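Hey, I'm writing a tutorial for new members on how sequence and structure tokens pair up, and I'd like a real worked example in the thread rather than a made-up one. If someone can provide the structure for the chain below, I'll link this post from the tutorial.
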Amino acid sequence: MSIAFFIAPVFRICLLFVFLHKELVDREFFMVYSYLMLIFCADSSGSFLSFALAEEDSGTRTLVDSAAYPAEGRMNECFFSAMERFFTVNSRTVHDVDEWVAVTGPGSFTGIRIGMAGVSGICSALGKELFGISALDAAALVSGESRLTAAAKIKLNEYACRTYDFILPRYSDLSVVTADELPGDVIMAGSSSLNLAEAVADARCGFFIQKAVPLYVKRSEAEINFDKKSNRQ
């Protein structure tokens, strides 16, 4: 009696099991091998130092956790310690992150430089590329609004702003206006109620991701004063 005589019934039983339990097999077996991409974002453009972790699976993004730490005037002192605390709380390390993102501004000149330099250094050590998202785009995404104008103070009475329509969708170019020219319902990127780092949990974030280049819009007071002194000499 051939061995095929015994194998054929067993094979048919296995096929029957797979077809009868297809949903179970899909969920309990194949999903084990689905890959979750972990995205990290840091925002140091305002008075708070903010972090967020998000997971992406098949184009769907989910916020894992986010946190904000008061850091006005102390950004340089607490950046790495706050980041280490954030990763520890979430039982993750920098080696677990697949995509690194930093908020590029506009906002605090010093904060942007410290934050982007810090994350860029980590990416260099890990051999990862650093991506950026502007503070205006991030504010628009986390605001929850379908139509809005986001703005960030850049100098005295001047603001960088951009208008968003996520329904059409349509987005204006970045412009600089005075406080009197801002709409009454404007969303301020520097608001403590917004964690801009959470923008990476929005699936639309990919449209606004760009090269990690600081977005200052205007030169800092230190740069302007330095030029004035140089011209006098």
